[in-house]
Design brief:
8 helices, single chain, Spore Coat Polysaccharide Biosynthesis Protein SpsA, Chain A, 10 strands, alpha/beta, 235 residues
Length: 235
């Protein structure tokens, strides 16, 4: 199976982007394309680096949005250029382990009718590190009964492309809300089970602008959105 790695980029420090890109280019599984969405970055070192990547590597497909409308819009835009059977999500400030794509290729060859597979991640900052421990299977019933909302990681997750497109991709949620959680609910409502491998295959960089740890994602609006999405599972 060919894999498309989808990476939206906006205002990320260029040295972090370089680490993220290098970690994909160094994958042990090499039948992939890297689709980078330049989400209207201004001229400067990051813009120049992305332009260089597009010229230097045949595996890299660089597409540019000329209006920044948030990560959900950038992901849906990038999906149009993904040619692989599978689509793996990659953030511009994380580091993929060398065998990330190989594990996903193995998983979907073994289970071709499953639609979504997550991984475990190592979270780190300048002070400490910790790890995710998500269940192997997340059904609608399991998700509805969990005390929290974190049961699969967005970074490193892999989708069957055709089903993701059939479901309409990401919901057009505001950029400060959980576009990934909304997508998980959509899969569960459509009868799909979400799966997680036990392997730790991504280093997730935690910083003040990390989507899941940014201050505005602790706001009442953030928690209300999660609660409203989760309530759909009980209907």
């Amino acid at each position: 199976m060919r894999i498309s790695v989808l990476m939206p980029i906006y205002a990320t420090p260029v040295e972090w982007v370089q680490e993220a890109v290098d970690s994909i280019l160094a994958q042990s599984f090499q039948d992939f394309q890297l689709v980078i969405v330049d989400d209207n970055n201004p001229a400067g070192p990051l813009y120049n680096y992305l332009q260089w990547l597009d010229v230097a590597f045949l595996r890299v497909t660089l597409v540019r949005k000329f209006k920044n409308e948030g990560i959900a819009a950038a992901l849906n835009f990038g999906l149009k250029f993904c040619s692989g059977d599978l689509v793996v999500r990659m953030d511009a400030d994380d580091i993929a382990h060398t065998d990330l794509l190989m594990y996903h290729n193995w998983f979907f060859k073994l289970y071709p009718y499953r639609q979504v597979c997550g991984i475990q991640i190592r979270l780190f900052n300048n002070e400490r590190e910790w790890y995710s421990h998500h269940p192997a299977e997340v059904t609608r019933k399991v998700a509805a009964g969990m005390p929290g909302h974190w049961f699969i990681n967005h970074p490193g997750v892999c989708f069957q492309r055709d089903t993701l497109l059939k479901l309409g991709g990401y919901n057009p949620t505001p950029s400060h809300l959980a576009e990934d959680y909304s997508l998980w609910i959509k899969y569960l409502l459509n009868g799909h089970t979400l799966y997680n491998m036990e392997a730790v295959l991504m280093d997730y960089r935690v910083h003040p602008k990390s989507f899941s740890f940014a201050p505005d994602r602790k706001s009442p609006e953030w928690h209300q959105f999660l609660a409203e999405q989760k309530s759909l599972l009980d209907e």
